[in-house]
Amino acid sequence: KPEFAFIGRSNVGKSSLVNMLTNNKNLAKTSGKPGKTQLINHFLIDDNWYMVDLPGYGFAKVSKSIKSTWEKMISDYLKNRDNLVAVAVLVDSRLDPQKIDIEFITWCGNNEIPFFLIFTKSDKQGKSKTQSNVQKFLQESIEIFGEEPQYFITSAQTGEGKEELIAFIENEVQDYYDTHK
Ligand code: GDP
Known about the structure:
alpha/beta
């Protein structure tokens, strides 16, 4: 079954977004190996696709070795998934472009891992502030990739962007099944 992986800096609003997307959905957490700390969690949605919850990056306080273990785990996971449709990269719309987010999408590009952007917490500041932060981020993306990445502006508070995002994912899931018959 097709998978979408969700990643972002800690506190970006990933849990809130995942809750928004899975509201009213038939959701099953698939169990991993017992006794092992689960860093990467899979949720089966509507018996149709997997939402994969990747650990947040950008913790300032963890040691270098923990950080590199995480990074290895995430990159091993992302590089070896035939059924990974795309990575949803969550970006806090309140902030100017963050180095770690830009580094991560650059890494995705270098490894030919498809991604799209989800700007979170759009309700937290005025529309024009959101727009200008989004545009700055898109501009930096265009400088790297030569084209604008797919993106969604969302708020878990107001539900902004929810329908568009779900429609996009369901469409991609359908394409996946069409090409994997
Ligand atoms: P995570 O660490 O990335 O999973 O982030 P959480 O989903 O736990 O959210 C971090 C904080 O931001 C919490 O206090 C949330 O209530 C808040 N938050 C998340 N999404 C939104 C949003 O769309 N709007 C507002 N106003 N607050 C949000």
